[in-house]
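ARCHIVE CARD
Drawer: 12
Card no.: 0347
Subject: one protein chain, sequence and derived structure
Cross-reference: see card 0346
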Amino acid sequence: MQFFCLYFISLLMLGSMKLGWTDSGFCSAPTLLNTEPNSKPLYWKVINPTLSPSHLRDLPGFTRSVYKRDHALITPESHVFSPLRQWKNTLGAYLITPAMGSHFVMYLAKMQGYSHVEAGSWNSMLMLLSVCILASKNSSSGLPDYDIERFIFVVQGSTSLKYATGEIHQLKVDSFAYLPPNFGHSLEGGTSATIVTVERRYASLGTSTTEPVVGSTDTQPLLETPGEVFDLRKLLPESSIYDFNIHIMDFQPGEFLNVKEVHYNQHGLLLLEGQGIYRLGDNWYPVQAGDVIWMAPFVPQWYAALGKTPSRYLLYKDVNRDPLLP
């Protein structure tokens, strides 16, 4: 397998080099380093943030990440990936966990796989070499622990969601799925995919159980937001049997929340597109696509979209449960 990958990459490298004559008469080859595409796919900046480790080489020790008693800002240069327990050929970075004070976890799962390689792309060839070594077999997810419900949202690539009953759903960028507690399923794929995952222990009402949900953001209806200007979509049913929901919120440049929120609900937020300012308590943070925020109950919170492009974020919110219940 490794020999095949090395041989394949060597052929690509030779095929991508075009020899020619310079003005001084010497033979030259065009550079292979300019690989950035002209148009970026949806949520491209979540996994390719502007302020990434490669842009911080001259600023050792710098990070925008902050952790406080009632909130946290986790930025991409602080992500630490390691193999995910019970997942195969997948790396994960836990961004929100109960160690902070949350009752849920949010993590990025990077399912490894063969990547598309453009001719003339040196960086892509090197990436293919490393991926080939990892991708001798497909990636797959493990099951969460007992009574844990799971929500997934694809921000890069694609994957197959397979139920234990045999039902299969193809998930691509902007697709999502909710899996009830103790529901047999797996994510499988031979290509790379990056998935935002939220898990928590289900707070049962003792009467009925939740059902699996599969969909995509663009198929969800826009909901009314009295007194506000942002666009709102809710990805899960508003039935009381669901103990959390996921909101997709869109802001045009210059728009902001009218309400300065203070409430008992917790939030986990991933900025998918754009940039802005987030107020958390008495702190004001510049944020951009790829940033993750945890908000504890009753922390003052407010957002304004800045820049020249719209903002979109994914927001976890616990709902439909009495605050007196454990």
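Annotation on reverse: Confidence is low (pLDDT under 50) at residues 1-37, 115-135. The radius of gyration is 22 Å.
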